[in-house]
TrEMBL record:
Keywords of the record: Cell membrane, Membrane, Transmembrane, Transmembrane helix
Subcellular locations according to the entry: Cell membrane
InterPro entries assigned: CASP/CASPL, CASP_dom
Organism annotation: Fraxinus pennsylvanica
Spans through the membrane: 30-51, 72-98
Annotated GO CC locations: plasma membrane
Protein name in the entry: CASP-like protein
Amino acid sequence: MHDHVEALLLKSYIVDNCSNLVFNTCLISAAVYTVFAANSAAVQASTFALIGESSLQWMKLCNRFTRFCTQIAGALLCGYVASIFMAVISAMSAYNLFRFYSSKQFLLLKGK
């Protein structure tokens, strides 16, 4: 009887832990996509600052503000490095989530 209760408690712990991991994995993935999208939009805007747009009569800004353009380039590089680190953390979180599931049956939790 004691083993049966222990098995139920373990299964309950795994189910609670999995639901928590699913939520965390979704949040981390959303954060990765948001940071990557924001960084990509900033790259597009900084490209306009670098080369200008003659059809819209936007002049090149990096000819006048070279220090600003250097700082923006460093910030964009840091943003992409942060996106890569966040993607690695997301992959680790997904691995921790899916290691609880059986490889033989779809969405079946592993037993003890």
